[in-house]
Write a structure and sequence with these properties.
Length: about 80
């Protein structure tokens, strides 16, 4: 899943080396915490959060294989 998130995010940002993804595994959910360079936060979130919503939709759909809820937090 980290590879999928990184593949989606890299073309959007100017500083791809600053991308950090942390996975937190809990009983009933998996939380991915995405950190990017401060200059790239707006690019990842997008106008009115459209890009962030689209990224979350793809991640949630890919996470359907596991029997846990999948969340993506943009830090």
């Amino acid at each position: 899943m980290n590879t999928l998130i990184e593949t989606i995010i890299k073309p959007l940002v100017d500083h791809p080396e600053a991308i950090e993804i942390k996975e937190i595994n809990e009983d009933s959910k998996i939380v991915y915490k995405l950190s990017v360079h401060p200059d790239d936060v707006g690019k990842v979130i997008g106008k009115n959060g459209r890009i962030a919503k689209s990224i979350r939709t793809v991640v949630y759909a890919a996470g359907m294989k596991s029997n846990k809820k999948v969340y993506l937090d943009i830090m």
